[in-house]
Design brief:
The protein has 261 residues and is mainly alpha-helical. The protein has 14 helices and 3 strands. A 3-stranded parallel β-sheet has the order 1-2-3, covered by helices on one side. Helix 3 (52-62) links the parallel strand 2 (38-42) and strand 3. The radius of gyration is 23 Å and the shape is globular.
């Protein structure tokens, strides 16, 4: 809703499309019939497979304006790297700004509105989703209602998923993975956090007989990181962790170079 206000400054009557196939069909039709206008495609995963030249060709041949909207952009992904010169990023709104917006959508105390914004990591798309959910409850909005119904931020879920995986809790880690996919969390981000965590657990496990201060000195990890990772050691052997680290690294490289999704 916020972003549409900016888009309507470009074109008061933008048209929303669903996927890249619909976009290609519009481009083909434009060769025969004038299809000028502005088309908006929101959070399309399939379009990330397109190349820079393909995207520019579609727009130039179609003779229309195309606006791709993503709630999150992973600058390491090939698609965004190739189109970097065309990307405009908007800073997140502050807690106070979003609290006012939330109160305009749903009656609640200003303090609770700010808490909801913080819980959603100031992500407007998530806030709108949570507002819709809270409206359907038909209840007075209290802190207890928010705590019971608002999901933790996706990044918290990533860390929980990774920890579950390293605790050998496959069912829980898979449930969290499905939640993250549903929330459209970046796969590259998930893999990157997984790599970092496996590396830290491997480092701590290598020096498990030493004191926390000595482990910190040898690995460069903070005392907090050493303590957190000590809870995860011993589930896998050092050899297994090393193999996992190599596999995750190879996957991350392939994702960043566009070889796999």
């Amino acid at each position: 809703e916020f972003l549409m206000r900016y888009i309507k400054r470009i074109d008061p009557n933008p048209k929303t499309i669903e996927n890249i196939e619909q976009l290609k069909e519009i481009a083909r039709s434009s060769m025969l019939f004038r299809m000028a206008g502005t088309y908006v495609l929101h959070n399309s995963r399939d379009i990330l497979q397109a190349t820079r030249d393909e995207m520019l060709s579609i727009v130039e041949n179609g003779g229309f304006t195309l606006i791709l909207v993503f709630d999150k952009i992973d600058g390491r992904a090939k698609f965004f790297k190739d189109l970097k010169g065309f990307i405009v990023e908007f800073e997140k709104y502050s807690d106070e700004q979003l609290a006012g917006y939330i109160q305009g959508q749903l009656a609640m105390d200003p303090r609770l509105a700010q808490i909801l914004a913080i819980y959603c990591n100031n992500d407007v798309a998530r806030i709108e989703m949570e507002i819709d959910k809270l409206k359907r409850l038909g209840k007075e909005i209290t802190l207890e209602v928010i705590n019971e119904n608002v999901m933790p931020s996706p990044e918290d879920k990533i860390f929980e998923m990774v920890d579950s995986l390293l605790r050998k809790e496959p069912q829980r880690s898979f449930e969290l993975f499905r939640d993250l996919i549903e929330l459209k969390e970046s796969p590259i981000k998930m893999v990157s956090i997984l790599y970092t965590k496996i590396k830290q657990v491997l480092q701590v496990q290598m020096y498990a007989d030493l004191s926390n201060a000595e482990i910190s000195g040898k690995t460069g990890l903070s005392f907090y990181q050493v303590n957190m990772n000590k809870e995860l050691i011993g589930k896998f052997t050092l050899d297994e962790l090393a193999k996992m680290l190599k596999l995750v690294h190879e996957t991350e490289v392939k994702m960043k170079t566009g070889q796999v999704d």
